[in-house]
Description:
There is one protein chain. The protein is α/β, with parallel strands linked by helices. The chain has 13 helices and 13 strands. Strands 1-4-5-6-7-8-9-10 form an 8-stranded parallel beta barrel. Residues 1-22 and 24-45 have low confidence and may be disordered. Residues 110, 112, 122-123, 149, 353, 355, 364 line the site of beta-D-mannopyranose.
Amino acid sequence: MKNLFANFTGLCIPGFKCQIMNNRILKGLIFLWLGFFTGSHLFAQDNLPVDKLATKETIHLYNNLKKQLNKGYMFGHQDDVAYGVGWKYIPGRSDIKDVTGDYPAVYGFELGRLELDHDVNIDSVPFDKMKQFIHDAYERGGVITVSWHLNNPLTGKTAWDPSPTTTIGAIFDSPAVHAVYTGWLDKVAAFFSSLKGDKGEPIPVIFRMFHELNGSWFWWGGKNCTPDELKRLYRFTETYLRDTKHIHNLLYAYNTDRYGSRDEYLERYPGDDLVDIIGFDIYQRAGGADGNAKFIAEMDKSLTTLEDIAKEKNKIPALTEFGYNGLPDSIWWTNVLAKGINTHKISYALGWRNAGIKSEKRFEYYVPYKGQSSADDFIAFYGLPQTLFQKDVTKEKLYK
Ligand code: BMA
């Protein structure tokens, strides 16, 4: 011990050579200490997402999303590059790009049916194509978010099979159902760890687990389980992915549907240690001046509450899904959506998918395609200083 101390303090006796060596050791130690200091400063406790072992790129994304709140909100679109109204899998194509010349900044994808080993997801998107889309979007500097309409592991039916209300209980109490559920998580973990950038680094993903969890249409939501059951499932799922499967490229989003009060929003909140991003989904159903005014007022109120909670809890607020199906209002973007969001600081707003038009009465699309009646207004919306698209965020280098 004594000798060691003498060496480190440069007191090595006798000789010059020894002195040089000691200086080197000292310099090395100072270097290491400085490195540690700057590193720990950069990744100080407050600047880490809930996964303390998150990859470098995930940590950068997390911090940049926070910083960017002062610049504007990113526009996102589900399945943007996979298909649009009247087309499917045309390389490089996107309805948003057809209209504005630019891609969205956030790209939503969906994992439903991955748990069943299907080659294509619930909306017929092949998983191998999805991985390529995710890779390309990430390399362009875009942000990836993923939802998962997973089947009911107790009944084997779809996510929309709420009965019986014992599914979450069975996941914990029945070894067979537990095994089904963890088997599904293993597949999701394999999917996330297969997402790699050009340098082999894992691609960060915002995972919207158990989205719309205050509504009663999914087996994990609303009346179909108790708040404590959902919280337990959320904690188990995240811990399993992170600690058992060692997945460290995820930011976790807590995601309700539209909500009436702060208490309702937080009723199923699983804990500050599990959530990076807080958001909600909201759709406009009624049009006209009255419908628009109500939608703007609801957005304004809900976003105010969301921002307050985000500030208190040091989380990132986002509009995790929105839409007005069929976009019947030609100035909806600047006259309604922008008015609802523009006074708020949120990270992003994700428009739902452009599944297409089957007939006059059967259609599903939430962003304009070229020629759609709200396309010109969307270009004006694109030009607003608050809205950020691909070109804006590429400049920001969100992963550095
Ligand atoms: C719903 C609808 C469905 C779709 C599902 C999963 O909101 O868009 O058509 O299958 O999401 O993405």
